[in-house]
């Protein structure tokens, strides 16, 4: 893939220009003028990033909360969320194969829609990831307490936040000092998780449809009517924030034209199916009313209901692994998001510095880790989740818009390996659905989300008004 | 002329010992500067910050090779997987062998290992070209006996015909790795063959990596001939 010479792209407040390198991409490496960047991630690695980022929330934090809001129809909320994710994953795949660079969604939007949209999305995404990380960490805290309780050490919910804080600081430090073989570990964790879940869910499904165990009385599918299905979908959409993270490692993926679409669409389908089955099994076990009183770790009681204390232990252990892997993946994505905007001179260059000792981006990790701890300390699970979703949904909607515009203008450099099926209906629906979900959130989340976006727009005016990124590869 | 790929962790202050520079004077050299990153760092982020510094250091190393009379060029790769990078660049440059780093003074004794499932003819051809008409002694080592393999004596004959001073050794009792490690102290540089991928190498790592871990001096690994690709 050839790219044009960089043109005058303007300077930011500190006089830095965006770093453009003409590159040649092959299936195995990226060649710049004076260096090469190895592609080392395979399809399994990509799927592990997608599934590993998403799975923490959907199964292990939301079932109780969602069932309380929508009844058994919460399964429909998850399905709806999955459908929206799929509508966005397809356009994201197309853009990622056209621009297989680190930076992901931010990169597409800054090149397709220009610097203002790019700055708002790039910075909002970094902040959204900070919210998501905090959300996963609080979930992790709940599971840590429950794990200890299963082992006979009862500490009570008062220690959830301190534990979450402790591990949040721990993950940040771990990432600062470089985690050898972390990718392999993540693959193993995800594989282990999927097999535990599949076992518990298969047994639960057999039980729920009455093939084994005691028959249970069915309750009304949507006791609160159709609207809560949609508002709950807006809440649980946090469980699908992750497929676009695969695009942030597009520059490191082998055979990007094939692996990127497979990993993105595949991970949405895998987790979507798991979520819907989980909710079905969970609401069949207890009925939604009781489920909602069990709170964040309702799935532990579901596991106990079907498989006794072994089931409960299996679920707490998976819950620990899943929330941990989601939190860790999100911290890493945050530092990548910060790097992407800093490279384009939308943030000071020092924000993306790495140190030679560990090869890790210490500044960006610090900028992510500090605020995460502050947000964890608030302990507001639903608010954290919704603000994270809000900021991601803006990104997703704009990705679809960028696709529509790029297809219409059809610039010379635009040559994706993967083309979205059902164009233009799929991206148009993806954009509409993303923006519509925002409308169904709690007012507090909407206000915070909007405030963050306005602040990033203000930063653009102050710092990077003269930087031009549209169409510059 | 054959090409040898010389990976150097250039940003971690790794240099190339002068003895190796002179030894490789008879072949073309590609100095492969690499920086191995943990997965949380995008390679491009490291490039942005360190490309210039790394390329300057590489240029110095290339200069050393040219001063020593050899021909050399340089590549710089930011990677999360060193072995994959070495394999890819070796393939692209059609390198006959690649080096694993180590320290050595002037080289006057080579240890050439022929044990196991390696392409003996490739290794001997490479050694003949590498040594050339210089006063470098060669010890040929084969451990274990396998059917139909070239014996150490027959291989020694081939090197002698090329005018190289050879000692042939066969260690029938010891395992190939132990036999090789036992000979290390009396030799400066090891030449060995790349093995076919096997379950053993998957579980324990490449034999050459294990030798390099035991050896103070550099190890040259002669690559297997790749079947011609379409």
Comma- or semicolon-separated keywords:
heterodimer; A: 473 residues; mainly alpha; 3-stranded antiparallel beta sheet; 68% helix; disordered N terminus; B: 230 residues; alpha/beta; 38% helix
Describe the model.
The complex is a heterodimer of chains A (473) and B (230). Chain A has 473 residues and is an all-alpha fold. In chain A, 68% of the residues lie in helices and 2% in strands. Chain A contains 16 helices and three strands. Chain A has helices spanning 43-60, 62-70, 74-98, 105-113, 115-150, 160-176, 182-208, 227-236, 245-248, 256-286, 288-293, 298-343, 362-378, 381-409, 425-439, 443-463; strands spanning 24-25, 29-31, 36-38. A three-stranded antiparallel β-sheet of chain A has the order 1-2-3, with no helix packed on it. In chain A, strand 2 and strand 3 (36-38) form a beta hairpin. In chain A, helix 14 crosses helix 16 (443-463). The radius of gyration of chain A is 22 Å and the shape is globular. The termini of chain A are close together. Chain B has 230 residues and is an alpha/beta fold. The two termini of chain B are 24 Å apart. In chain B, helix 4 links the parallel strand 5 (109-113) and strand 6 (137-143). Chain B has eight helices and nine strands. The model of chain B has no long low-confidence stretch (mean pLDDT 88). The longest helix of chain B is centred in the first third of the chain and has 25 residues, at 43-67. The interface between A and B is medium-sized, with 37 and 32 residues. Strand 3 (36-38) of chain A pairs parallel with strand 3 (71-79) of chain B.
